[in-house]
Amino acid sequence: MDKFLFIGDTNVVVIAYMFFILAFMLLIYAVVILGKKKLPKGKQKVLTSAEISDEAYQNALRILDKARSNSLKILSKAQFKAQNVLDSTYSISQESRKELDENLVEIYEKQEKSLEELTKELMQSYKSAVQHGKEENIRTLYEATEAMKKEALSGVDELKTAIKNETLNVQQALEDKIQTEYSKVEGEVEAYKQEKIRNLNKKIFDLLADIYSQVIGQDLDQIKHEKLILDLLKEEIRKSGIEHGVNSGSGQ
Amino acid sequence: MGEEVKLDFSKKIKRDILNILKTKQNANEFVEFIHFLSNETFSTDKFDVFAAVTEKYGDKRPGWFDSLQKNLPKDLDIKYVRECLNGLEMVVDGAEIVKIEMPFVPSNSFINDLYKLLGQSKTGGASKGKFLIDVEVNESLIGGAKIYVGGKYINLTLNQMILSYLETNDAIKRYL
Predict the structure, then answer these.
(1) Which of A139, A184, A218, B101 is deepest in the core (most CB within 10 A)?
(2) A&B contacts, CB < 8 Å
(3) B162: closest CA among A170, A120, A207, A43?
(4) B58/B121 same-domain check
């Protein structure tokens, strides 16, 4: 409120000073120009320069006095007006404040509305951007996932092929080894079987031989027994000769 | 007695002594007799061999002595006989041993036949008649005999004979 008053007072003072300056310039003009015009060539009374200057000076003093009085009047009027303004300041202030408050409320509401709209727009933009970014990210992620999936599947295919080949090789090697081991075991089993059969046959022969020997031995007297030994020896000598070791190592 | 007679006797008795003795048991008896004779005839020129044998063995004179007596010339001085017998001991010591296991004590007839049979064989020492038979009674043998000659073994047992028969005829496949 004081600011308004100061501005109002300043304007009045400026106007007063402008009137004062204007009056001073008019005074100068009157001294210089009008003084010349009052001196007609040849016909007018010739005045001395001191008189002229004095007259001009007196005129200027009058103009100046008049301007001063005018400016004083203006100043007093301005002062009066200012006083009036000052007196009405309070009431103005109340109204202004109210108006200002209303304006402020209005501005605030407008501002709030604007801000709200702006916020909405921003939110919308942000949402849109986020949505866009999200979609972009999803698309990128999807593409990356697809690429990774493709790459992984490619790797898996290679791995599958490698494992398959390796498995086939190992399987073949295993089959070969199993076949070899099987043949080996089969041979061992067959050898074992033959050995067992031989042992069994030998036991059977031994048993039979014992039985026959017991039976035959009971019927042998010494003469027959001696004859049997000699006959057996003759037979052995006849078959292959003692020098070749007939039945060597086959005894019991 | 001339030197030729002595030489002939010496050669003949050396050649025949193992055939006369035939068994290791007889050979041991013979060597023991030689030692006895050497002791009895030590530092004497006259000695009655037959009387000494009768004194030592009584009526049971060894069989080999009869064979020896037949080949022994009369009127031999005891010194020569002693030298000759010492030579025979060396022959006996160098003889190859053919061992036979059988379940009973064999008869002389069996020993003679066996010695003859082994002598006819082509076995190294036996073929040259330079062997003795060592009889060992093994009652666990049911029948037959086992002979060890020249590092070789001949199985003549009944068991082996029957086993050979069964194997030869493949008895299990044919009969069992």
Answers:
(1) B101
(2) 116
(3) A207
(4) no
Domain interval for residue B8: 3-93
CA distance A212 to A231: 18
Q: Which of B117, B154, B169, B176 to mutate to test the interface with A (most CBs of A within 10 A)?
A: B154
B15 and B89 in a single domain? The answer is yes
Q: Looking at the structure, do residues B109 and B64 belong to the same domain, yes or no?
A: no
Residue B175 maps to a domain: no
Q: Do B107 and A250 touch (CB under 8 A)?
A: no
Quick check: B117 contacting A, CB < 8 Å? yes
Of B93, B124, B156, which one is at a domain's C-terminal end? B93
Number of domains in chain B: 2
CB of B137 within 8 Å of any CB in chain A? Answer: no
State how far residue B27 is from chain A, nearest Cα, in angstroms. 22
Cα of B166 to nearest chain A Cα, Å = 7
Is B107 an interface residue toward A (CB < 8 Å)?
yes
pLDDT tens by residue, chain A, 252 residues: 444 444 455 666 677 777 777 877 777 776 666 655 555 554 445 556 677 667 777 777 777 788 778 778 877 887 788 778 777 766 666 777 677 777 777 776 776 777 777 767 777 776 777 777 778 878 888 888 888 888 888 888 888 888 889 889 988 999 999 999 999 999 999 999 999 988 888 788 778 777 877 777 777 788 988 998 999 888 888 876 554 333 333 333
In our burial notation (b when 16+ CB lie closer than 10 A, e otherwise), range B59-75 reads eeebbbbebbeeeeeee
CB contact under 8 A, A204 and B167: no
| B89 and B148 part of one domain | no
Q: Is residue A11 part of a domain?
A: yes
Inspect the interface and report whether the beta carbons of B153 and A232 lie closer than 8 Å. Answer: no
- Phi and psi at residue B137, to the nearest 5°: -80, 125
Whether residue B157 is found in the same domain as residue B139: yes
- Cα distance between residue A246 and residue A239, in whole Å: 8
Is the pTM for the entire model greater than 0.80?
no
Cβ neighbours of residue A93 closer than 8 Å, sequence gap 6 or more: A1
B110 contacts A229? CB cut-off 8 A: yes
Q: Are both B23 and B86 inside the same structural domain?
A: yes
The token pair that represents A108 in the structure block: 């605030």
| CB-facing half-sphere around the CA of A153: CA atoms within 13 A | 6
Task: State which residues form the domain around A209.
Answer: 191-239
Does B131 lie in the same domain as B78?
no
